[in-house]
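Morning F.,

Quick status update on the modeling queue. The single chain you submitted on Monday has been processed. Sequence for confirmation:
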Amino acid sequence: MSEQLRTALRLAADGLPVLPLRRGKLPFGNCPACAHNACGGRPNMKAAGACACAAPCHAWAAATTDPHVLNSPQWAGAWRQAAAVAYHPGDAGVTVVDLDDPAAVQWARETLPATRTVTTTRGEHWIYRGTMPSSNAVRPGVDIKSLMAYARWHGPSVGVTAALPDAVCTLVKDPSTARRAPQSLSVPLRGHGGACPHRTPTYLDRGITMAVGRITEARSAIHATVYRTFLAVLSTHGRCGCLTDAHVTRLFTAAQAKGESPRHCTDAWTNALTTLGL
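Structure tokens below.
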């Protein structure tokens, strides 16, 4: 077993979704569709943020805490060649402010609240509790790595993790998508008024409860899990118009508790509606 795989398994056991990186801090193509970097080094993503490749895929979409996946034959070659271990901050519920040079580190020390930090090869990673859209070059030497991104593991960090501050959120173009607390959102249900399959109201409530549980219990591939769960709910309950804003809010709240942004929830729901022709 390689040292990189041992590190990955230890981190996964602690609940951190991990993946292997090759030279140059680039992801491997772990599935046939992405072999030899055929897809250009990025997951083939749908509008909802789900990777369309056969699992396990690569980049942030490959991050997992499942030791069976990490030890699977599909990943064996990648771990033998791996130069580093990375993780998906968004799936871990955190945001990494990647400071690439001493000037950026000095800016952070003067501008941002103290938080958990780790020394990198060129600067530091400042880690905050909460998620937001990822964005590169938000200012000189500063990248934001959170949702739909991966960050290299540089070893144990020091300090206490602080809540994601406004000073970080406002670095991106749309700071309103940063996750503070679950928001109650409603989106078009477009029910067709078909025959209602719900024998009793309990049938619908039980279905929503099961869907919320599926999202809440997910430990990896959160974006894909949310989309597939929305798709399953709408395929069963979306045609008769019985879903209410309260039902949708329960689903969105569960997704946001796992780090999804309101925009990603809406995109996933809309994409599921389109897929089903609703």
